[in-house]
Design brief:
Rossmann fold, 8 strands, two-stranded antiparallel ribbon, alpha/beta
């Protein structure tokens, strides 16, 4: 089934202004203008983020929707994929954000605008635990692009979590996938955009 509705989910402290989000938006707009694109600013509360996303995609045709998620957005995308069965692309996806983000409780700054701040509450760690999506449903509909050079997340843990999915394991690289341009065509091909 071709994708007519595409959701992009940014990572922790990130935004729709991330390099990958903007490159995806530009590619979709220029090559597939008929595809409905949505890349919302996610609230710091995982529970609120999921409510926003599930509410915003309620009317989407699940057989024609797809989601791309980066880092924490990849964790969220995995949860959405488990609920909808949609095609999913994961970019250095967080595997255990409840563990990893527990050290970030407190005031945080936005990556793209240090003047923007938010408070990461202790309750958000439990909200992340509540979102665990095990085991993977429909792994054949998932593509994970994982950089061995990721400086924030362990590529072995990511590879193990998504071993049954389509896996593109990169030598080197970084958490931001600074070379995203070289992977964009693979992402678009996997999504089979209308």
């Amino acid at each position: 089934m071709t994708t007519t509705h595409l959701l992009y989910l940014h990572g922790f402290r990130s935004s729709p202004r991330s390099m990958k989000a903007m490159k995806m938006a530009e590619a979709v707009q220029s090559r597939h203008p008929q595809v409905h694109w949505w890349c919302p600013q996610l609230p710091p509360s995982p529970k609120e983020a999921m409510a926003l996303l599930m509410g915003g995609t309620t009317d989407w045709p699940t057989q024609n929707m797809a989601v791309v998620g980066s880092s924490l957005g990849g964790f969220y995308a995995t949860w959405i994929a488990a609920k909808t069965g949609c095609k999913t692309v994961l970019l250095n996806p967080a595997v255990d954000p409840a563990r990893d983000l527990s050290r970030y409780i407190g005031e945080q700054t936005s990556w793209h605008d240090p003047l923007e701040t938010f408070f990461f509450k202790p309750a958000f760690v439990q909200e992340l635990r509540d979102l665990k999506a095990d085991p993977l449903t429909h792994p054949e509909r998932l593509l994970a692009i994982i950089a061995k050079g990721d400086e924030l997340l362990d590529w072995r843990e990511m590879s193990s979590r998504y071993a049954s999915a389509h896996l593109k394991l990169l030598e080197g690289g970084d958490h931001a996938l600074s070379d995203f341009d070289t992977h964009l065509d693979d992402v678009l091909a996997f999504l089979d955009l209308a």
